[in-house]
User: Fold these one by one.
Assistant:
Number 1:
Amino acid sequence: DARVRGQTGVVSERRGSYPFIDFRLLNNSTLSGEIGTKKKVKRLLSFQRYFHASRLLRGVVPQASLYLLDEDYLGQARHMLSKVGMWDFDIFLFDRLTNGNSLVTLLCHLFNVHGLIHHFQLDMVTLHRFFVMVQEDYHSQNPYHNAVHAADVTQAMHCYLREPKLANFLTPSDIMLGLLAAAAHDVDHPGVNQPFLIKTKHHLASLYQNISVLENHHWRSTIGMLRESRLLAHLPKEVIQDIEQQLGSLILATDINRQNEFLIRLKSHLDNQDLRLEDAQDRHFMLQIALKCADICNPCRVWDLSKQWSERVCEEFYRQGDLEQKFELEISPLCNQQKDTIPSIQIGFMTYIVEPLFEKWAQFTGNTPLSENMLNHLRRNKAKWRSLLHKQHSSSRSNDHSGQVTGSQEQTLNEEETP
């Protein structure tokens, strides 16, 4: 269970024809020693900033303002937190208002709102230190899998935990596990997918025997940070072990390769009407489903937010494709910028992954206003991507006479509509 830190920068050792790829060098980062120093300084500054902000959030006015220029931003951030349960919550704006500390600020607020600090007798300084560790272990250079994505998933999870069908049965432990898993579900993500790690013989692929490689790493990293921070050290050993195992079960459920497994099981429960949320096992299963929904809820957000996330995830795909091309590896599906367009990727994702899951989630919740709202956004967003795809096709056809688009290329474009 020992935590692996700072090692996902190296994708592979030189073996045979496989290249040595160092993400830190590719992203023009500084040397590891400098990174460590900057992280220590950033952590101290982050806590100082949070301490001032938290006083304002609690309504405590300091004797002398430490950051006069930030007062307006703190006020806006506080106002946004009062609406953290709204589905149109703009996590990008919140991240700017919190100076890039959206995940830490959000988690501190939600742990307080849900009464978790008091219930588990958590030390506030230790809790904040742990949240900062989690936030810093996300790679800010990743367009999609970064701390803002984690904050977005956590905010969505908060919304789902408030759904009456689930909320009426949740214990404080359930809520804490749901929020922690949401916050840490992609921690230390290297910005490439599992097939990339496998074909480049990354040490994590070997460590986890090519099974849920990233998810296992996210879980183990989270456990390492929990132990390092000693956040739960005052709890009985068996309670800590149970929390660690349940965190693993939740985070591992986000493996997209297990989508059908969970969907079939959810359909069975709904068809048989045999979910008993008084049972801890059934509650845990629905927490897994809630986390899976939160993780892929971007297409269910308002268009302006959804479009940003779509562009970010595709940019990350394309970066992987560029790496694969550079090192003469086969380009992974969805990672070829010349072939895989953003509209086609999103339409396929919505059709085969998002819609089936959210339709069953709506059935579970009893078609609540939130579920209906999400499905309406999903349908509208899908229609907009179809419209954009149609425009791309029309533009390609208009250029056909100039030889810019060949018949085979047009056929490929048409095939993308049903990936």
Note: The two ends are 39 Å apart (CA to CA).
Number 2:
Amino acid sequence: RTGPGAACRLSRAESERRCRAPGQPPGGALCHGRGRCDCGVCICHVSEPGVFFGPLCECHEWVCETYDGSTCAGHGKCDCGRCKCEEGWFGDACQYPTHCDLTKKKSNQMCKNSQDVICSNAGTCHCGRCKCDNPDGSGLVYGKFCECDDRECIDDETEEICGGHGKCYCGNCYCEAGWHGDKCEFQCDITPWESKRRCTSPDGQVCSNRGTCVCGECSCHDVDPTGDWGDIHGATCECDERDCRAVYDRYSDDFCSGHGQCNCGRCDCKVGWYGKKCEHPRSCPLSAEESISKCQGSSDLPCSGRGKCECGKCTCYPPGDPRVYGKTCECDGRRCEGLDGTVCGGHGTCSCGRCVCERGWFGALCQHPRKCNMTEEQSKSLCESADGILCSGKGSCHCGKCICSAEEWYVSGELCDCDDRDCDKHDGLICTGNGICSCGNCECWRGWNGNACEIWLGTDYP
């Protein structure tokens, strides 16, 4: 060719001849059957990039075999994906010496795995190095001591490695997103993104880095070898009861120094005690009832359900967050934030958890302009649900946005199609006062978790 898109000047026969290995007769495989011939040039398969290369796609894999962490065992050079061994060595990774100066006893000793089994009963010992049994040449049995058997990954029905939906490493399948099972034989009924979202803990880690996520559910790493209920639990493995023990001992009941109750890895101390493990005594002139009364204020709950009451004083959660304040933690600026983090939609200021809108804007988050620049038809088209009902029949339409009925406090959503009565309650409050109800589900503030945002995961309060 003379340039991109130009016609090929070679005849078809000449083009194919250049793509065929020397000595191959006409009609033989082009590009070693690993690519397509384009005007006498082999374009290696792009479905597996980097696997096949070379002028005629004659090379397979860029990386040569390794032994004990060294390419070609340090006794050869890698050429076209295969080891070319130095004199005196042989094997796929040049790991075997042609002449052995070891005794049989010493050789066998070097071939024993951690259980003192020679080559894991899956190979033979050759001069202190294991030669794994692979009679069919598949290479599925491998490892320094032949400890890895990838035949364990073969699906009995499809006869594919990990069912074709994962990679096998040392006899264990590591499944692609959306698949699970010992051999990746089961498909999730939710998307990988939804699965990850459900498994993500408030700190942004999948299963709190204490478990594995399978189809949106966390399987926590159970630290109890008996298989009974372990110290790590929770929907996202966020609870670690070991944090409540002064000195960790699996079989002791010494939680919170005996002066409190462990709640999801956090000690709730009895009156008169404080500290991360309730290890410090505290003297308070108030009775428990007097202390709670001072913390209650006009709220039904001590510290408005957003803090801890100690000797008549509230410590608001999360500690150090300026958005939660007040003598009884009654002000929560997080209620002024939209899902995108914008305070009062950028059109107002937050005053003790309520938006004071600028002129020309209204709504709980100052999200509605008083003047609209669209026609009534345009506005209504944005407010109609799939069944053609305006704002689901539970609100009014203003400038393309629904304003849900104030009489039915539980109605919410862009089209007033959500029922916030479905949100879980705890201690009489929706989302325990530690989150916002979003279409029937609790969206917890940072540091909180649980169906009702009742579990505090943040740094321990002072």
Note: The two ends are 76 Å apart (CA to CA).
Number 3:
Amino acid sequence: MAAEIHSRPQSRRPVLLSKVEGHQDAVSAALLIPKEDGVITAGEDRTIRVWLKRDSGQYWPSIYHTMSSPCSAMAYHHDSRRIFVGQDNGAIMEFHISEDFNKMNFVKTYPAHQNRVSAITFCLASEWLISTGHDKCVSWMCTRSGSMLGRHYFTSWASCLQYDHETQHAFVGDYSGQITLLKLEQNTCSVITTLKGHEGSITSLWWDPVQRLLFSGASDHSIIMWDIGGRKGRTLLLQGHHDKVQAICYLQLTRQLVSCSADGGIAVWNMDISREEAPQWLESDSCQKCEQPFFWNIKQMWDTKTIGLRQHHCRKCGQAVCGKCSTKRSSYPIMGFEFQVRVCDSCFESIKDEDRTSLATFHEGKHNISHMSMDISRGLMVTCGSDRIVKIWDMTPVVGCSLATGFSSR
């Protein structure tokens, strides 16, 4: 059945259901246990913990396991009860958790990387464990044998990872701001393409295999949507955060994107509308409005006996303009600009008041967020960060929908 969408007033905000405290250092990852009132956390204090909600309403650890090195990444496969924990020393350890979530048995160690593990994904169909690390590589290993199948190296350390289980395509974001699309084979891989658009390191990725959309968040405070399936190179820019975007999650049924930033910002973006693609910035030696030379245009400055001006760009039309021709600022949400940006004076006049209506809602998580994950079927979100606190949120008031497949009252 299709999703039924209800409009909600913007006064609605995420509801904090629980705060989980106990880690002695930053919490690297937190994952909600599907169909259970539980959460799994891994921290820089070298511990992995399973927290279950008790009758008192509080979460208490049912499992507390100390690792040999700080925990940097984690993946959990609920159907097989397998947990994979990446460490600062480059190793990934696999555990099997009991059905009552009160016991965790060690399975094997994977020598995946030579440095800190940054992201992990597990594919049950192929029994592959795929990971990225600060040793500038993506590796894929066989979980049956524990052996290495292949590695691919980048020029910068690999920071995040998404994987398409059906096509065996891996998306790897790196510290240089580039995203590489790889086709993984049993013992080799091929580079399909590279995506460049961010001005800072890639901090988070989300792949939607249904619409074939890739979302990337970066330290430049922005999010880009890449239309991989459309094959037209279409990209949409989203700017509304004031710090680096640490985590993103796309709700495919309702066409909404949830993003979290390091300063605690939580945003919900409406992607169920026809957005405009941000223009490419045009190059010119003089202002494309008044034709005054820019400061490097020595010849025109000499010929006209004028002092060169500083170059700017209109975010709406992309033209190179001087400060006198771009005195106005405006938001333009249809193009992803949720806060005021520089526009040329003529574009400012063309923007109507209704064009400035926000297409996202912004909320304050009130703690540092370095990692986020969602249980989409229940509308739950968990956030964690360097403040050592794990927060569990009810996002249904913000997402503003009821899904036939979930979001049931608990």
Note: The chain is about 5% helix and 50% strand.
Number 4:
Amino acid sequence: EKQKEDNSSTECSEPGTMDLKFTSSRKYISISVPSKSQTMSPHIKSVDDVVVLGMNLSKFSKPTQFFICVSGVFMFYLIYGYLQELIFSVEGFKPFGWYLTLVQFGFYSIFGLIELQLIQDKRRRIPGKTYMIIAFLTVGTMGLSNTSLGYLNYPTQVIFKCCKLIPVMIGGVFIQGKRYNIVDVSAALCMSLGLIWFTLADSTVAPNFNLTGVILISLALCADAVIGNVQEKAMKLHNGSNSEMVLYSYSIGFVYILFGLTCTSGLSPAVTFCSKHLVQTYGYAFLFSLTGYFGISFVLALIKIFGALLAVTVTTGRKAMTIVLSFLFFAKPFTLQYVWSGLLVVLGIFLNVYSKNMDKIKLPSLHGLWKKTVEERKTRTLSQTV
């Protein structure tokens, strides 16, 4: 019996040992073999922190986040637009739009590197291939846009750039498989038509249409429509930070532009010209890049929190404000066309905000209004009869 007990204890101990090994192996497997989502993005956190210029927006409520981002976009990009037009007002600078973009990308890369060193997590989360695509689109957006100012006046450029709401929605459908409702479509149409109508009077004051400039700004518009959706998809999938996005996309873009200018022999004349006008070129370019960097940080935060469509709606509204300020700083004729088109833009903004908060904002339907009116008429008739 003692031998049987020993045998039974041995038999019990061996399975126990096996169970322990099996359990430990299961633990090892669960750690080393991540799920599909973890394989795609091994650094995804349970709570996404959105940090802009050292400020953690995740601590604030959604309305406060929206207010901070919109304020930052308007403040920095209004200065950005003024400096952009000021730089191209320097006599002889118009042919060097690509060199301005090169300098701008260089400053952006330095600013992004500095900001990345100030945060704790310095890992690159988004794949390099994705950054190469984003950098190419960024070069197309900003380079072609800057170069088009050598052929078009500023209001004409704004007219084209205001039309990117609809391409962004089309890009969202094909790139991310999004589906937009009739309210989003109406908001995009109102914003685009309103801003085109708003800037039409200004463009007719000094029309300077050029086929080359139209082609350049059209290509920039197409790239701009795609880049917002690509950035949104990459940042949400891999939980990339704003500083990481700016650093890698603009540093790779800097290499693209430098290679292109070197191959086309466009680098030497630009350097020679800018060396003769240091303050008006590099000085303005530094402030231009600094405000643009701060602005793009808030735009990326808007994309990450609220999506590409709302971000483009805000930046499009900022363009309308740029035109308004141009009337304050420079003497221009005024017509009621600006008032009606401005109201159309406001309607587009309201429709977009309503679309994002349809569960909180309940507007009465036409059927409900009609039914209520009929009931009120019946009540009045009954009271008069009595």
Note: The chain has one domain: 60-357.
